[in-house]
Structure formats: C-alpha cells, structure tokens
Design goal:
Elements: E1 4-10, H1 21-32, E2 37-43, H2 48-60, E3 64-70, E4 83-85, E5 91-95, H3 100-113, E6 121-125, H4 145-150, H5 156-164, E7 173-175, E8 181-183, H6 186-212, E9 216-221, H7 224-227, H8 234-237, E10 243-246, H9 258-268, H10 273-276, H11 286-295, E11 302-303, E12 306-308, H12 320-329, E13 335-339, H13 347-352
Parallel strand pairs: 1-2, 1-13, 2-3, 3-6, 6-9, 9-10, 10-11, 12-13
Antiparallel strand pairs: 4-5, 7-8
The chain binds zinc ion.
Residues 96, 98-99, 142, 144, 146-147 line the site of zinc ion.
C-alpha cells in the first residue's frame, strides 16, 4: 500500500541490547527493499557504537531517526526517579509526573548517553499516569506531596471516598469531539482535568528542551478512547509535539493494548456500562476504532496511528490478515507506524504492507 511508514525498533533496554548490528542490518535491508520508510523510532539501548552505526545506516538512505525514550517508568537505570505514591501511600513502578527531579533525571540520562549522537528527534514514551492494569490504586495516580500541592482546586477527600467504594461516578461521563472525557461528577472531573494538565505541563517542558536541541518530538499515546483516563489530553499535547502515535493495539495481551485495558476497567467496577457504552460493538470492532479516529482527525500535530506488526507467542497474536485489516481501517492517514519491534515482523506481514 501507499503509506509512508514509521518503523519502531526496540534495540534494547538502557542496560542491554536486544540485537547485534548484523542482525539489525540484515532485517532492515530486507524491509527497505519492500516498503517506503519515512522515519525510524529506535531505542533505548545506550551502546554508542551501535547507535552510531544505526544512525549512519539510515541517514545514508535519507531516513530520519528518532530516539525512543521511556520517561515515567523506572528501569534498572541510574535515574532514581521519584515513584508514584498511591492514595493509600503505596509506591508503584510508574513515577510521579510532577516532581521536577524526574524531568531533570530523564534529561540528564539523555545528555549522558545520547546527546552527542546525531538523532533527528526524540520519541517520548510512558509520559502518562499508570493505568488500572498496574492495579486499581495505581490507576488513580500520584498522591505525593508535590502532586497534592497541584490539586488544591480539587476536593481530594471526596474523590478518595469514591475510589474506596469503586463508585460508578468514577466512570460516568461523555467524550467530546477531541476525546476529552467529561465526567458527570464535578469533583471527579476536576481531578482528571488537573491530572491531564500535569501531564501536559511535563510534555510542554520536555518538548521545549528537546526543541531547543533542534530535535523533532513525537509522543506515544494510549488509544484515543483511553488516553484521557491516563492523563493524556490529546488535543493539548498535540500543541507541543510534531507528531502523536496513538497505540491502536488490538492483538496484544498486555498493558497499553485496547482490549487489555478495557477489560481491566470492567473488572474494577461492578457495573461498567457507563464506560463500556462508549465502545460501540466492543473495544475491537472496526466501528469502535473508527469512532476513536474521529477524536484525532483535527489535532494540531501529525497523527501516525501505531499498529502491531510483531507476532509474539502469548503476548501479541497479530498476523498478516490482521495487519491488512488495520491498514484498511486507518486508510485516511498517510502515515502509519509499525510497532513495536520491526525486528520481530515476519515475512508474511511484510508482504501485505
Ligand atoms: Zn506525585
């Protein structure tokens, strides 16, 4: 098909590379003879020599390369991020979006390992609150002192009381044209509004920093129907970045994928009709996916829907037929991102692109 593709390649963690240079070159040689690739999103291994080889390889072919950089999730790395604090005081793997230390620690890590390399841009990942897939308490985000200072306009005790009883008011509401969810309960609405502002503020700060380094900025977002629930106000975030990549993952049995996140919602509330009614035909129907696409049609950034192309036994059961179907659903978008690791894409999938 006639798409301009963005390819995501998971080169490894901060500590360890997933592939050798030879493996990457062999796979990419094969892919590039078949499809037109506009940009690569590669990360986040810190091996300078490997990264330089990758950059040279793609730059020779006039393909731009963005560094894939995860933010609010502490790996076994040196950032020592301030963890998110739940409303009962537990701490979680996801980290606080408000604490300035976290933005600074991410920038410091970038400067140490990547700033000297000629990346064309940065792709911000995990810049959101935890979802319910990290646990019910985690799903409401951070109640640390810094975050609470920012919640002064919210009756936080009233919201906590609703959380304690899994109250349906935590679900009831309507989407607007841009996918922002307006909760019927005024305090729940104020709470979620503030959360999204704190995430948008962090995106603004980081985008300003990376723009000052002459880098383009892209961002990974939850699927449009789920994004606001994890603090991502699509319309607002799109003002600060060059492109957004909503994760339209329908075949992955893991956090951030649409069916997985949807089912966690249902599990946490006795009656979730107030939520499920927004998914016409169920979370995976073409109708539901198209309904979500309407949320992002007119945002002030390029939209690059992300579809899964890596079959992984027990994790992602996509195949050539599913990829073909998704390409058709998203046909009005010129750009498509093939996620999340092209190294695992098989020949049958490559053949339908
Ligand atoms: Zn916090």
């Amino acid at each position: 098909m006639d798409y301009q593709y963005t390819l995501q390649l998971h080169s490894g963690t901060f500590q360890k590379s997933n592939y050798s240079w030879e493996e990457i070159k062999t796979k990419c040689d094969q892919i590039l003879t078949h499809i037109q690739v506009k940009q690569m999103i590669i990360g986040w291994n810190t091996d300078t020599e490997l990264n330089q080889k990758i950059l040279d390889y793609f730059h020779e072919k006039d393909i731009r390369v963005l560094l894939w950089f995860p933010l609010l999730l502490q790996e076994n790395d040196e950032r020592e991020l301030k963890k998110m604090e739940g409303y009962h005081g537990n701490s979680f793997d996801f980290c606080c979006p408000t604490h300035l230390h976290n933005a600074h620690a991410c920038i410091a890590l970038y400067e140490k390992y990547f700033a000297k390399l000629p990346f064309d841009g940065i792709f911000l990942d995990k810049i959101r609150y935890a979802s319910f897939s990290q646990g019910y308490e985690a799903g409401f985000g951070c109640f640390c002192e810094e975050c609470m200072k920012q919640m002064h306009s919210v009756d936080i005790d009233a919201v906590k009381a609703l959380i304690d009883t899994h109250d349906i008011r935590l679900l009831r509401g309507e989407y607007d044209r841009c996918g922002r969810y307006h909760f019927a309960d005024s305090q729940v609405n104020a709470f979620y509004k503030r959360r999204s502002q704190l995430i948008s503020d962090l995106v603004f700060k980081l985008a300003a920093y990376f723009n000052s380094r002459k880098l383009i900025v892209g961002i990974d977002l939850f699927a449009p129907i789920l994004a606001y629930h994890v603090g991502q106000n699509i319309k607002e975030i799109a003002k600060y970045v060059d492109f957004i990549k909503p994760m339209m993952y329908t075949h992955t049995n893991a956090p951030a994928a649409i069916p997985y996140e949807y089912n966690v919602y249902l599990r946490n509330f006795e009656s979730s009709e107030a939520f499920s009614k927004h998914f016409p035909g169920g979370p995976l129907s073409s109708e539901s996916l198209r309904y979500q696409m309407d949320f992002i049609k007119n945002v002030p950034a390029t939209v690059i829907p992300g579809i899964e192309i890596n079959p992984i036994s027990g994790v992602c059961d996509t195949n050539a037929e599913a990829v073909q179907k998704h390409l058709h659903i998203f046909r009005e978008f010129k750009n498509i991102a093939l996620c999340w690791d092209v190294m695992r894409m098989d020949d049958e999938i490559l053949a339908v692109l």
